Sequence to fold (131 residues):
Amino acid sequence: MSLKSRHKVDPAFSMSSMTDIIFLLLIFFMLTSSFITPSGLPINLPTSKASNIVIQKVSVTISEDLTYFVNAKRTAKQDLETAIRRELKNADEGVVVLHIDKSVPTEHLVNVAGIAASLKAKVSIATKPNE
Fold:
């Protein structure tokens, strides 16, 4: 009387379907994530020797003609604080990146930085690297 099983279980595992899923997930995350959110507005940034890349949560742009933008949405100067507060509420981390044209007087930069600091946000100034 033979007690051996006639059906042997094959212990091999095919990884081809797993690699397909990994590549699809990799492509999905590469297309949907954004490391740096450019402001998309044509401004002439000042230059710097070293530049750290900061993941932008809230972008405040002041153009050459003193037009204010918060995350590329035009905002009046008197509504700036409420717009920044609203955007910081939606962001995970309180980081405000200032994109200010180099011809704009410093008082506007200080005004926006003061508003961001009063909302307990970290302030960073965007520059373009020296070439």
Q: What stands out?
A: The chain has a mean pLDDT of 80. Residues 3 and 9 are 16 Å apart (CA to CA). The beta strands are 47-48, 58-62, 68-70, 73-75, 95-100, 122-125, 128-129.
